[in-house]
Amino acid sequence: MALKFDKISGNDAIFKNPExxxxxxxxxxxxxxxxxESYELYSDHKNVIISTAKKGSRVWIWTSSMIKNDTSKxxxxxxxxxxxxxxKVEIYVKQDVSGxxxxxxxxxxxxxxxxxxxxxxxxxxxQKKKDKADMPAxxxxxxxxxxxxxxxxxxxxxxxxxxQCKDEFRWxxxxxxRKVDELLNTEMYALVKNKKAVAVAAIGSTTEDYIRIKSIxxxxxxxxxxxxxxxxxxxxxxxxxxxHTPMLYSHVGNKSAMALWNKTGFKLNDKLxxxxxxxxx
Length: 281
Hints:
The structure is a single chain. This protein has 281 residues and is an alpha+beta fold. It has helices at residues 18-22, 24-34, 71-83, 95-107, 109-112, 152-163, 166-169, 174-184, 227-241, 255-263; strands at residues 6-8, 39-43, 48-53, 58-63, 90-94, 114-126, 142-146, 187-193, 196-206, 210-218, 245-251, 267-279. It has a 12-stranded mixed β-sheet, sandwiched between helices. α3 packs across α4.
């Protein structure tokens, strides 16, 4: 029997599935997509959650262990994505299912007119829950503050910070305002030096065991001065004070970020793979 996918809302009780709840890394990723209005979620209400971007081609697929070796069900996923008319699909999957999906798309290429390109994408890092991260002392003129979006001065600090980053982050046009507003709705911290934010961090979704560090950014002109290490260690220790384990995603090609995670005690925990699927036509 073919899988039937229905669009689900943020209030659907899909997360009662014990497999998703037990895997906190998957749960965090699903929660992030579920709370992002730029994505739509679909599910068979048992084994699969598919997150598709309303604009663009990014797709997240989360499957339970029951479906990972079931070729017929995986083909159902392929056909669903084809019927969504998503151009040049970019699919993100966990390491333990990436091989199966890669083989599947190759086998299904005649039927779906897809060509598969495997490409390593994201690494998932965690710290040990009990061990505090080493944090260099703040110097004169430096402080770390918790951002209150209702405070005009705080909002100005964050807006001015990201104004200097928007070209690097490709936050053009209306995307800039939306991204800044989205971050201001999270738990944010800023490392301020001489009344100017030089590094910021945002804390994302929470599960029973994990809290995700959603974003860490340092002004380009202020990098390699220890600010990234200070803000990263601070938010990691803040998470540990709550009895949780810090976790984050990172593109492995970002060498400066990878060096920062290693320096602040993060260890590679899992991998996510990107499958680029290009339409033959």
